């Protein structure tokens, strides 16, 4: 028994060493090739020098983006207009989209997604802003900020396990191990429900995980933006008689409006793509499914690529206004330079 | 813009203090402090619970909540030994190979993305050509295209190649069960943000230095290696942490391109499976989760300063 154990460990170690060796080799070859190309292209002269330089610097990124994002997006659109079996799928027009908006279970998926999009970004930005303002005057603000920011480093899967444990259910006759049940029992609710099974409450419990992660991001970015508001504006407002809370609401908030919008859109985009939380905690059961998880199940579990692609496209259309807004902001900013 | 963010940071002590004094007064009350302390405890407690549970013997975990350690302190490391080397409750193999997979996926996906992004950022900012602005905007806009849009076509591209009719244009690569599809996909998906952030920084570098180097006869490749890269170290560090955390914590890309093959599946993918398999064995699941958390947490706390700088470079406008 002990011998076989040692054998397994030894073979694990040797495969691991092989894998790490492969990684080192790949990285070394990559950088060697880049240096070699630089060296060779540096010797080029004449008419081709400039186009060659541009191609070497910008080319790799553009090819990867084209192959990885641009072409697949069009392909997804094409697939969404076709039936389930991808090899010889018949053209079905917008039937998959019709299905998405009329099928009751998919309707609830889209409704959940919408709910996530409204609640999670607003609450995490709101809480983050509150902390950013209040924490500045505290003594141990660096510690507080680090602790609240910490969930950003934790994977969504890790965060989901952390919270699944908080929500863990046991019959009220037994000693509890879920923190939430214990707290509500201590507060006098003798028979708490099985949290993750109670619809629609479970949706909000899952959103708490997202808010837990994103609040630190909102806090850090907003805190920096508040500190960057020029003194002159605040002073001018004070001369005009603005004070305390009014100064905050009518001067400081408008001054950081642009940053607020950026934080909101960033969290929204992250929310729209959220997949890990739902998958790890409930697997999309008990009425908690969202579009990105359903898209994965349809495409890779049920092998209905047409419907999966339609859902991906719906997610894309959801973020489209956000893209447009961000591009407009960026152009404005560049024009001001 | 990254340079702006750093300036903002440098100026903030003098600017911020006077500016927010009055507002602070409005919010300063014992209630505010209590509120912040309560919030911090609320934010930290779930992670503490996970860590404490991973150190408790199975019998204790089954019979009492983790908070009872205050009265009955009793710790063991056997859970960690179990999940790392044995897999626990009838599972074959521990988590160790998956930790190696995570590292093997994350390191190249970070370094290669950074290299390609720096090159593109330099090209777009300093080898300006007709349409370089349009290209920059397009790359920026790609940031928000959901990954989900490309998963299916990309997977088919790797597995089946490209055909028009029955004429093969690009051969099937047969790379299933290797790291290559995962590396390449992470690079593709990381590039829009990487190019955007690096471009913000690199385009703000002083132009006189580049001019001087050009007058001395240096070509773009030398300027890039000897001037631009050394000057961009802060931004490179910031984005490296970003990309490292993003790849390490990813589940969707890993499941799609490495799914099903334990040979290349990263830790997040394995953990997601364990949630089902360990069931009520919380002491094992929490130990596994903590192993997955500890590396990004170390990276994060050690390099927090750079990480925050990177965040600000991407999002503080005005």
Q: How would you portray this structure in words?
A:
The complex is a heterodimer of chains A (about 325) and B (about 325). With about 325 residues, chain A is an all-alpha fold. Chain A folds into 2 domains: about 1-80, no CATH class; about 100-335, Orthogonal Bundle (MetI-like fold). Chain A has 14 helices and no strands. Chain A has helices spanning about 1-45, 50-80, 95-100, 105-135, 140-150, 155-165, 180-185, 200-225, 230-240, 245-255, 255-270, 275-280, 290-300, 305-335. In chain A, helix 6 (about 155-165) packs across helix 8. Chain A is globular, with a radius of gyration of 26 Å. The model of chain A has no long low-confidence stretch (mean pLDDT about 80). By secondary structure, chain B is mainly alpha-helical. Chain B has a single domain (about 1-20, about 90-315), classed as MetI-like fold, CATH 1.10.3720. Chain B contains 15 helices and 2 strands. Chain B has a two-stranded antiparallel sheet with strand order 1-2. In chain B, a hairpin with a 2-residue loop joins strand 1 (about 160-165) and strand 2. In chain B, helix 2 crosses helix 14 and helix 6 (about 130-140) crosses helix 8 (about 180-200). Chain B is globular, with a radius of gyration of 25 Å. Chain B starts with a helix and ends with a helix. The chains are: A mainly alpha (about 325), B mainly alpha (about 325). Chains A and B meet through helix 1, helix 2, helix 4, helix 5 and helix 6 of A and helix 1, helix 2, helix 5, helix 6 and helix 7 of B.
CATH architecture of chain B: Orthogonal Bundle
- Rg of chain A from C-alpha positions? 26 Å
Strand content of chain A: under 5%
Strand order of the largest sheet of chain B: 1-2
Percent range for helical residues of chain B?
over 70%
H/I helix tally of chain B:
15
Low-confidence stretches of chain B: 1-16
Q: Roughly what fraction of the amino acids of chain B lie in strands?
A: under 5%
Structural class of chain A: mainly alpha
């Amino acid at each position: 028994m002990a011998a076989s154990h040692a054998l397994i460990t030894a073979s694990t170690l040797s495969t691991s060493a092989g894998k790490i060796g492969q990684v080192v080799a790949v990285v070394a070859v990559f950088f060697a090739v880049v240096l070699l190309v630089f060296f060779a292209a540096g010797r080029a002269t004449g008419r081709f020098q400039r186009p060659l330089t541009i191609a070497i610097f910008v080319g790799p990124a553009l090819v990867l983006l084209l192959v990885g994002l641009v072409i697949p997006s069009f392909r997804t659109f094409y697939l969404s207009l076709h039936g389930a079996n991808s090899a010889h799928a018949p053209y079905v027009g917008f039937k998959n989209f019709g299905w998405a908006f009329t099928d009751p279970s998919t309707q609830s998926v889209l409704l959940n997604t919408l709910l996530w999009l409204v609640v999670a970004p607003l609450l995490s930005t709101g809480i983050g802003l509150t902390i950013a303002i209040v924490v500045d005057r505290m003594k141990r603000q660096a510690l507080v900020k680090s602790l609240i920011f910490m969930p950003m480093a934790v994977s969504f899967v890790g965060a989901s396990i952390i919270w699944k444990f908080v929500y863990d259910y046991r019959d009220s006759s037994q000693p509890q191990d879920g923190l939430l049940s214990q707290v509500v029992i201590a507060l006098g609710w003798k028979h708490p429900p099985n949290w993750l099974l109670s619809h629609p409450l479970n949706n909000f419990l899952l959103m708490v995980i997202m808010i837990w992660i994103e609040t630190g991001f909102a806090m850090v970015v907003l805190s920096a933006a508040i500190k960057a508001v020029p003194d002159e504006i605040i002073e001018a407002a004070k001369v005009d008689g603005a004070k305390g809370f009014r100064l905050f609401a009518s001067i400081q908030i408008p001054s950081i409006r642009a940053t607020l919008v950026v934080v909101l859109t960033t969290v929204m985009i992250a929310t729209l793509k959220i997949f890990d939380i739902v998958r790890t905690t409930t697997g999309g059961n008990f009425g908690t499914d969202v579009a990105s998880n359903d898209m994965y199940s349809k495409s890779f579990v049920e092998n209905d690529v047409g419907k999966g692609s339609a859902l991906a496209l719906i997610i894309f259309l959801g973020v489209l206004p956000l893209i447009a807004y961000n591009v407009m902001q960026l152009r404005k900013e560049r024009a001001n330079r | 813009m990254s340079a702006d963010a750093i300036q903002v940071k440098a100026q903030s002590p003098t600017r911020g203090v006077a500016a927010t004094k009055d507002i602070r007064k409005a919010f300063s009350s014992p209630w505010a402090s209590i509120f912040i302390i309560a919030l911090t405890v609320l934010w930290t407690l779930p992670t503490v619970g996970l860590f404490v549970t991973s150190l408790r013997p199975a019998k204790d975990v089954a019979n009492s909540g983790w908070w009872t350690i205050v009265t009955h302190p009793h710790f063991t490391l056997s859970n960690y030994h179990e999940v790392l080397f044995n897999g626990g409750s009838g599972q074959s193999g521990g988590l160790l190979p998956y930790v190696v997979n995570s590292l093997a996926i994350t390191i190249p996906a970070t370094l290669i993305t950074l290299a390609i992004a720096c090159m593109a950022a330099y090209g777009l900012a300093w080898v300006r050509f007709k349409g370089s602005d349009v290209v920059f905007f397009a790359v920026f806009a790609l940031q928000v295209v959901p990954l989900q849009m490309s998963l299916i076509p990309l997977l088919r591209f790797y597995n089946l190649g490209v055909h028009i009719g029955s004429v093969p244009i690009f051969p099937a690569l047969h790379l299933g069960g290797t790291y290559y599809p995962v590396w390449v996909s992470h690079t593709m998906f990381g590039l829009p943000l990487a190019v955007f952030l690096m471009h913000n920084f690199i385009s703000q570098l002083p132009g006189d230095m580049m001019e001087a180097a050009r007058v001395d006869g240096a070509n773009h490749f030398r300027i890039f290696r000897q001037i631009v890269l050394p000057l961009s170290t802060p931004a490179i560090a910031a984005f490296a942490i970003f990309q490292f955390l993003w790849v390490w914590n990813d589940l969707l890309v890993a499941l799609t391109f490495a799914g099903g093959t334990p040979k290349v599946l990263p830790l997040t993918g394995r953990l997601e499976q364990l949630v089902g398999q360990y069931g009520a064995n919380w002491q094992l699941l929490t130990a596994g989760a903590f192993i997955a958390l500890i590396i990004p947490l170390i990276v994060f706390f050690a390099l927090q300063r750079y990480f925050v700088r990177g965040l600000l470079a991407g999002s503080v406008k005005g």
